[in-house]
Hints:
CATH topology of the largest domain: Aspartate Aminotransferase, domain 2
Low-confidence stretches: none
Number of domains: 2
Strand order of the largest sheet: 1-7-6-5-4-2-3
Helix content: 40-55%
Shape: globular
Order of helices and strands: HHEHEHHEHEHEHHEEHHHHEHEEH
Largest sheet: 7 strands, mixed
Radius of gyration: 20 Å
Number of strands: 10
Amino acid sequence: MGSKAFCGEVWTNVHPEIMAAMAACNQEAVDGKVGNDGFTKRAEAYMKAEFEKEVFINFTYNGTAANILALKSMLKPWGSVLSADCTHINTYECGATEYMLGNKILTLPSEDGKLSPTMIEEYLQKIKNFKYLPEVLVVTQPTELGVLYTNEELKALCDYAHSKKMFVYLDGARITNALAALETDLHSMIEETGIDAFSFGGTKAGLCFGEMVVFLREEFAENMAYSQKQSLQHMDKSKFLGVQFEYLLKTGLWKKNANHANGLAKELEKKLSEKGLSAYYPVDTNMVFCSVTPAQYGRITAHYDLHYWEEEKGLLRFCTTHETTQELIDHLASLV
């Protein structure tokens, strides 16, 4: 089996500064559990400081749980979810939304994972006689294909969704990469655009584990403690998650890691272009997709444990992370 470099963020080690923070946390007496410890409360305070209005925060171990916990709070039993067909909740979560919640996911075809009001309106017109009640629009920032929504595009989506009496949830597993690439902040990307709830990914930002679920509407947060318990996300030793987010937000490590990964993705795009390979999608963040020949595929996969993203297109995904180095970029390019 080849190297896991370029496979994705979950194949990296924990950032050493985060690991050190967890070790230091372990030397302190426990002062609370299930989110009531000092580390978690301070992490929440750092997140709340990003917004003008009050926000409501919960934590999960992983991204699938974050999506389920958020949607569970936002959906009625008969409500449906709208998303792009390649969205993570539809393709990589083993039908968790439909299995755990019983709510239908309605998917729209999208070449780059992005949606627009026009696309959604056309789709709604097609399904209006099928008795679905679209209640939550799910967008991913960046999309599964590494492409970004601008803040203006997010606002247009939110304005449209709200006009149709839908809420908007943003899956932010890689939101730190998006914030860094757009040189924006959470207030501008979330609060000013009208997003109703979002996840703030920690696992892909260098943490050992953990995601934040942030609601901007109080009614979604009314029963969070019960929902967290019922969703199997009750954390007794919560300080070990809280300290990671406290350090990530307090120090700005999230931005350092995101800029590093985004920058090396651009460097990889340049190196591959010099070898005649063009990126299939815009390299907005830390993912580079390229169509390769069978010979190139063989050379690359002899060293790196990668697989076709879309075999019929010969498409490979290269994902850069906080652990990616220039030497790795040069080596991968040499195999092309």
